Amino acid sequence: MTEPLTGEAQRFATVNSLMSAIAGTGRDARRGGYSRPVYSTAELELREWFVAEATARGLAVERDSNGIIWAWWDLPDRHDGGAPAGADPRAGALVTGSHLDSVPGGGPFDGPLGVASALAAFDVLKMREAAGTLARKRAFAIAVFPEEEGSAFGVACLGSRLLTGAIDPVRALNLTDERGTTFADASRAHGLDPDAMGRDELALSRIGDFVELHVEQGRGLNTEDYTDAAGRGPAVAVASSILGHGRWRLSFTGQGNHAGTTLMTDRADPMIAASQAVLAIRSIGAAQPGARATVGRLEPVPGGTNVIASRVDLWIDVRHPDDAVTAALVTRILEQAQQIAALEGCAAELTEESLSATVHFDASLTRALTASAARTVPGTPALATGAGHDAGVLASEVPTGMLFVRNPSGISHSPEEYVEDDDAATGTAALADALGDLL
Ligand code: GLV
Ligand code: MN
Ligand code: MN
Ligand code: MN
């Protein structure tokens, strides 16, 4: 019989009950897994869940002008080292958190694990403060960022990009979802003032350090560099960097026409050009060491079985640690796309939708996270990741670091994404220790 968990171990395990509480929200019967795009019923339900959990813990919850939710654990007045009179008592706070939205048909952990572990880690920190083993020098907050995946409006990390000014708010407000609703209208419908969106100096000045815990999204911790004799990798890693990455829309235009009356020799079919481009993009990516080039979405217009499309849009995701190589790959893709299009009597046009430079996380915060995490997971490794995160956007403004929790499937952005309960609890313990050391 296993011993019942007590004290801090029990609080760390809270991460799993929090995750279970939201396991029914946003399930996608058609795709499998979860579809929780920003402002969907599912995502709004998760936000309500977060607000209720944070409020029940005595945290002061507010939503800022960019739609980011903050749950504040303010500094009690009695502590020395608090803010000087008249200054913002939240300035330079320690902030942790992640996102609640998902890709279409995603896994349960990408995003919510960082939010649930933050709540569970807070429980432990509060317990330590009550026990007199933690004396905070600054305020603490849990942040929940909207539209991290860019699944609805096309640009990932939209909340943190608005906060930092990494996206022009006018451009952000004009982004549209698949129904043609602008981000401005969607934001207004959810109680935000579009005119107030954009770089927020006050909110930024309140982030002293940002730490995001996240499910590991590749095979990073399952490779033989890290696994033991039983083939098991460590439960936790610290992030070293994020590959530079971007999204481009490649549009092929041709002649829309009748599938039955148009001879095969008379066609200017953008679907044919797009199909060849998909293969060319795979070859260009495969020929470049360290590169990833993906077409995960393709839309024929108008999209009918008996209709030769007049246009096909496809979206390309390109990533590489060297930003100059990413740029060169995209140039090569456009050149090939134009050649392919010409042979089919079509035209090709490329539009950049977002671009993020390679991020190297703050060296001293990363060292501190590694030292703290090593108390729970000796020899905590450092991993680069190919996935984008709000932490990567914030890294240009404030010291930022990340913890990754082992994903035995090595699969993410898919229903097969997985985290074992024990690893989630271990990750939460590492997060709580790291936050406690930084507070
Ligand atoms: C977001 O998760 C991304 O890396 O695309
Ligand atoms: Mn993701
Ligand atoms: Mn994520
Ligand atoms: Mn992401």
From TrEMBL:
Keyword hit for Hydrolase: yes
InterPro entries: Amidase_Cbmase, Bact_exopeptidase_dim_dom, Peptidase_M20
Single GO molecular function: hydrolase activity
Keywords: Hydrolase
UniProt cross-references to Gene3D superfamilies, sorted A to Z: 3.30.70.360, Zn peptidases (3.40.630.10)
Family, as annotated: Belongs to the peptidase M20 family.
NCBIfam families associated with the record: hydantase (TIGR01879), PRK09290.1-4 (NF006770)
Protein name, UniProt field: Zn-dependent hydrolase
